[in-house]
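The material for today's practical consists of a large collection of protein records. Read left to right, the backbone structure tokens trace the chain's path through space. An example says more than a description, so a record of this kind follows:
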Amino acid sequence: MRRVRVIPVLLVSDGGLVKTVKFKESTYVGDPINAVKIFNEKEIDEIVILDIDATRENRGPDMLKLKEIAGEAFIPLAYGGGISTITHIEELFYLGVEKVIFNYQAFRNPAILTESAKLVGSQSVVASIDVKKNWLGKYKVMVKNGREDTGLDPVTYAKRVTEAGAGEIFLNVIDRDGTYAGFDLGLIDAVSHAVSVPLIACGGASSVDDFLPAIEKGASAVAAGSLFVFQRTHRAVLISYPGQQELAEKLFKHL
């Protein structure tokens, strides 16, 4: 029985925890510190925290807020949002962050992936790839919270960022974000088999039952946002995580 990582993704905006649908319709969920405290008790493999305002506001990470969050997290923590310098990385690792996630900067300045990998090791450098279908139905890599089209397809781009130094891919499908429509299995298959680094699949998970198909298509880990912060029927806030027995029965024992 093989374990794979099942990762909650927490979006931070204006210091609060939010959740989006297709990278829009932001809904306030609560205090990220309270969410982290709850997740501490759930035997979680890793948490991803993304500041969705930082790049748009042209600023670096909110180190004071991250210090508070990291101080409460007894789980491996990956952070993305506004990281643009080696100094940022040094400060984040000093706070206790174990992985840094690049999105816009990976596109604008791929050399930062190379420099980061030299500093902290490629296993701690993650390239976040946000993907959306255009009006022709073709996959395109988007940056700046899905507002800017890079003109690149995700397979080509995944090869580019891994060659630059990224040791992991965080693949997020904008059209499925917050929709509970299930993972885009075809895209996971294409990207995961184009690169040799681990891939985290994100976007669309509706239940634990969605995890195994993504892993079978080549994902090394699965991630979700709405699934872990909402009660599905009414989208009422409920921080939750599947029990280890459920994960074993529906995921681990099949691997």
Remarks:
- The chain has one domain: 5-254.
- DSSP finds ten helices and 14 strands in the chain.
